[in-house]
Amino acid sequence: MADALPTKPLLQVRGLEKHFPIEGGFFKRRIGSVKAVDGVSFDVHEGEILSLVGESGCGKTTTARCVLRAIDPTGGEVLFRRADGEVVDVAQLGEQQLRPLWREMQMIFQDPFGSLNPRKNLLEIIGEPMYVQGTTDRQTRMDRVAELLNLVGLRPEYMHRFPHAFSGGQRQRVVIARALALEPRLVVADEAVSALDVSVQAQILNLLLDLQRRLNLSFLFVAHDLSIVKHISHRVAVMYVGKIVELAPTEALFLRPKHPYTSALMKAVPVADPDHRAALKGLPGEVANPAAPPSGCYFHPRCPFAEERCRTETPHLRELEPGHFVSCHRAEELDLDGIGDLEGVRPDLAGAPSEPPPSEPVSGVAPGPEAVRENDPTPPDDPA
Amino acid sequence: MQQTPTPTERRSEAERPGEPILSVRGLKTHFAMDEGVVRAVDGVSFDLHPGEIVGIVGESGCGKSVTMKSVMRLVQRPGRIVGGEIRYRRPARDGEEALDVDLAQLPGRGRAIRRIRGGDIALIPQEPMASFSPLHSIGDQIVEAILLHQNVGKREARRIAIEKLSEVGMPNPQQRFDAFSWQLSGGLRQRAIIALALSCNPSILVADEPTTAIDVTTQAQVLELLKKLQRDHGSSIVFITHDLGVIAQLADHVVVMYLGRVMEQGPARDIFHAPRHPYTRALLESVPSLHAEARVALPTVSGSIPHPLHRPSGCPFHPRCPDAMPGRCDVDMPALVSVDGGSPVACFLHHDEVEEADRG
């Protein structure tokens, strides 16, 4: 791996909970709660991209918002190591104490059309966080905005234009520039590329990777698209109904998943190759209702490997291999399919060994363009 | 174990099944706005053959949805079909004569198009929540469609509705008949919508991003259902999406659109394995794959999709095209023509034909 994993945790989330009350009856009594986030723990190291992935309603966005205190968690700790080395519990701080902290943690939103004020030009939009944090000199802000626009690949002259003049991808660059204005150390990106067209999405992914390397930024990257998560993350946490079911370094998770849900998610991703139309394996049933989750393991009603124990006992996240955490009773005995063993996918991969591949796991999996062309009787015409 | 397809296995243009049930030729749908004319669909041609799934793929603003809205005559003012032909051919079926009409010529609010829309060509929309009324049960809404298009009584309509619900894999169709859309989960709601679309035995299903709003595990179920409909009932489906993975898994024939124009079309295998248009290549390369190397820069297309009011001259893709030839691509619009018996492509790298309407 090109980027060695740094060791110092920047963010330590411990047993994070966010329960929303359900009120009912005449007196609006509390009759239950939706456990949107239910005991989530993970670390984000300095210079690391950690992804939270899962289907809608799994609590990934709620987790991200609790980390930033955009909403207040109902339990657990969010320990953030500040630039001066002091560790603070973000979950316990009051508004006054949070403000200086927000310099160090910033957010990128999904919708670049909804997150920019149409009445402000880029100078005002990107300069606002600096103004709020005390940079009142206009020239200083202009210089910094020009620098930021350069950093995200926009021309500094654009600072006097308004958001409507920009395309979706350019707006997302503005959103990123604004998030970087205060030189944060942690950036929470909530579905930051989901709303973009594929040709633009690739540009923004490249930009995020580039910024992470150049500025040694840490990212908490929330997404539902496994291909994007695989592309960008150092480590991945898979969430299901408010809990993390598996957390591992990216290669380990995708090549040797230990939780049946992780494996099922991978099998459901359509492969962009018409020669390999293995039946897409969806999961039976639907995501469990977080207001009335099933007993035992929340995933058991949809799990092909469920046994009696899974119906009664709740599994806990445990470290199966160094750095590979999983919450499944049967994790040791199950031999689950990773991306290397997907049925019918890429002939060059079908025979791939299920053991951990040698030193360079990723490049061993990546089929070059030649591998694809071998399949085709007519090589593409050379345009020249 | 690599399967090398023999040339006969490959379906070229000539080998597609039967006479096309839908032929779109030179379709143009323009929107006259105060600021100028938006040429949302600007000369689109493709065929749908019986029992085939045609996938229309493209990014936002490429005109994929407006194309199919034009086919169903659902384009609202200020949009208007200003040119082209939409030939719909249906063989005779029980109680109805064979049809051979140009849908573009029918009066937009007339009886004829209203019979065809829903009865012959049915839509599976993107947003299942917005497609059902929350005030009526899903069963009643399916019955309403059946009574409107078929000459049957209420009891028979109810029987058909339950049959369709069970056909799309709705568990307990008898009970779910009385359910409201808001009581169903995303996946079941999408199944209910498909049952509604199927209720009048349409010859063509138009699926407009039917899985974009749902999760991958549920998406897989819906895609399998559509494949089953094609396999068991010989349904002809036009599938609109921006997701190349979905297209690769589902479509027999692929139409790639950009800014209201077809850039390239052909059998799915050709499009994915031997793309000829630089735009198709760029699209395929820029999608991160589960099987590609992680954390390396993805190949990108420079720039972004132009504003619809500021269309580039010549080939709409030329400002972003790595192979653009100055003085050629920025002047003339390449026509969509086949080269050497292959699939049609609109690019001067492959031929010199200029789109007639745009010459001069």
Describe this structure in words.
The complex is a heterodimer of chains A (384) and B (360). Helices cover 29% and strands 22% of the residues of chain A. Chain A is an alpha/beta fold. Chain B is an alpha/beta fold and 360 residues long. Chain B has a domain at 17-110 and 254-360: Rossmann fold, CATH 3.40.50. Chain B has helices at 64-71, 111-119, 128-131, 138-149, 154-167, 173-176, 186-198, 216-233, 244-250, 268-273, 278-286; strands at residues 22-33, 36-48, 53-57, 79-90, 99-102, 121-124, 204-208, 236-241, 253-258, 261-267, 337-338, 344-345. In chain B, the strands form three sheets. A six-stranded mixed β-sheet of chain B has the order 6-7-8-3-9-10, sandwiched between helices. A four-stranded antiparallel β-sheet of chain B has the order 2-1-4-5. In chain B, helix 4 packs across helix 5 and helix 7 (186-198) packs parallel to helix 8 (216-233). Mean pLDDT of chain B is 89; it is low at 1-13. The interface between A and B is large, with 73 and 64 residues.
Mean pLDDT of chain B: 89
Instruction: Give the spatial strand order of the biggest sheet of chain B.
Output: 6-7-8-3-9-10
Helix content of chain B: 25-40%
User: Unreliable stretches of chain B, pLDDT < 50, 5 or more residues?
Assistant: 1-13
SSE run of chain A: EEEHEEHEHHHEHEHEEHHHEEHHH
